[in-house]
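Lecture notes, part 5. Sequence design as translation. It can be helpful to think of inverse folding as translation between two languages: the language of shapes and the language of residues. The source text, in structure tokens, appears below.
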């Protein structure tokens, strides 16, 4: 027993593919989002965490090479250690919680200091004022070779965020950018995979991570939430106004003050920083899902087209009884709710029979038929040219009216050919009683 009416069945044929596609797309996005590591997790890239997203394996590898690893939880503590350790490396594993420009621009760091930032996104770089741009994001990190002048091992899974540094060096297909900011060398790594416990054993991730963080000391800034207040100025920075001392020629030496630490950083090239294009306003997963939906819609349209050319007449593989064909067509019209088309077919056939019976041309109108038969013109027009029925009951009534009109015209009393007329044998009687004498 079919519990769905034809209209509901057709709707399900359209809705079901899109529902399945939506579940597939959104399910994939949800699983991908759940699989992404959360920088707010205290174990995320922590040198003392043994979880999959932790980094105690990397910290152990660095100590095995004789590199000291100091974990700090505030920007102020990190700057104090870096100032006390010339040539140290400051590792920022969660840049979304750190104000990078304030971290570097508020104090003078020793020459040779290296700052390594893992997985910096577009919004992280917009606040720095560095002459570096974010050019895209991949669905997942990809392992690529170094292919640059910096002696770094590869392949390493660093290509997720892509960077472009006009005044620096770009390696790993854009997954690493190195440039200088005053006395500091900044290295942007496009993914955190080489530093994670569950990824460090893949490819050359461990060699890459220990090399890029190499030096005498690694200051590990392990922050998992934004600091409530800006770091206070260091005690070593005098609160008195800066007065440069003159050189031998009487000219002042030393850098000229360019503003207070609270001044917003100037954009590269002057003016406001450029707004990201529309392609970067949405994640890559959105565009991939959009392409998948478009391909699916095209495939669905091609499958629903039923034919790709003109109809071709072909013989039936077997003979079909006329009444089965009649009922089959009727059911198709009923499923499609084509009441107007069904009634038009009956009216056209009736008009043709009446015109042939009355000796009128094939395209005779209802008024001509009424004039020839003597019937009321309004009645004939209503039967042959009336409005379309809105319900199945109205269709049955209209069909009965058409049939009655044909019967009344073609078999009027007194005209030859009426079934059952006295003196003339009925065809049914002939079939029952045999041939007439």
């Amino acid at each position: 027993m079919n519990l769905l009416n034809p209209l509901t069945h057709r709707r399900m044929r359209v809705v079901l593919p899109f529902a399945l596609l939506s579940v597939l797309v959104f399910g994939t996005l949800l699983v991908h989002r759940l699989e992404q590591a959360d920088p707010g997790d205290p174990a995320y890239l922590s040198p003392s965490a043994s979880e999959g997203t932790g980094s105690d394996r990397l910290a152990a590898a660095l100590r095995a090479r004789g590199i000291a690893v100091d974990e700090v939880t505030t920007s102020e503590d990190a700057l104090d250690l870096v100032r006390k350790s010339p040539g140290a490396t400051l590792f920022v594993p969660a840049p979304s919680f750190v104000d990078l420009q304030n971290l570097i621009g508020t104090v003078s760091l020793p020459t040779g200091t290296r700052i390594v930032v893992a997985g910096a996104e577009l919004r992280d770089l917009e606040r720095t004022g560095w002459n570096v741009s974010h050019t895209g994001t991949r669905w997942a990190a990809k392992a690529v070779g170094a292919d640059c002048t910096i002696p770094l091992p590869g392949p390493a899974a660093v290509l997720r965020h892509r960077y472009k540094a006009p005044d620096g060096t770009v390696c790993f297909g854009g997954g690493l950018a190195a440039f200088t900011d005053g006395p500091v060398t900044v290295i942007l790594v496009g993914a955190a995979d080489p530093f994670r416990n569950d990824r460090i054993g893949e490819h050359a991730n461990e060699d890459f991570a220990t090399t890029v963080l190499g030096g005498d000391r690694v200051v590990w800034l392990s922050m998992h939430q934004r600091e409530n207040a800006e770091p206070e100025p260091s005690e070593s920075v005098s609160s008195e106004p800066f007065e440069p001392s003159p050189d031998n020629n009487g000219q002042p030496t030393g850098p000229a003050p360019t503003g207070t630490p609270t001044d917003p950083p100037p954009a590269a090239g002057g003016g406001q920083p450029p707004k990201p294009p529309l392609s970067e306003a949405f994640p890559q997963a959105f565009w991939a899902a959009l392409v998948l939906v478009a391909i699916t819609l095209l495939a669905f349209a091609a499958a629903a087209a039923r034919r790709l050319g003109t109809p071709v007449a072909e013989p039936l593989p077997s003979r079909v009884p006329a009444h089965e064909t009649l009922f089959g067509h009727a059911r198709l019209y009923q499923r499609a709710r084509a009441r107007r088309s069904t009634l038009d077919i009956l009216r056209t056939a009736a008009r043709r029979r009446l015109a042939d019976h009355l000796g009128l041309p094939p395209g005779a109108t209802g008024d001509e038929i009424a004039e020839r038969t003597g019937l009321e013109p309004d009645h004939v027009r209503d039967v042959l040219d009336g409005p379309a029925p809105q319900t199945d009951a109205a269709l049955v009534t209209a069909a009965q009216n058409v049939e009655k009109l044909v019967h009344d015209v073609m078999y009027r009393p007194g005209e030859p050919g009426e079934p059952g007329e006295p003196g003339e044998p009925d065809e049914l009687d002939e079939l029952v009683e045999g041939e007439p004498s």
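The translated text above is only one of many valid answers, since several sequences can fold into similar shapes. Strands lie at 68-72, 89-92, 114-118, 133-144, 156-164, 169-171, 176-181, 184-189, 217-221.
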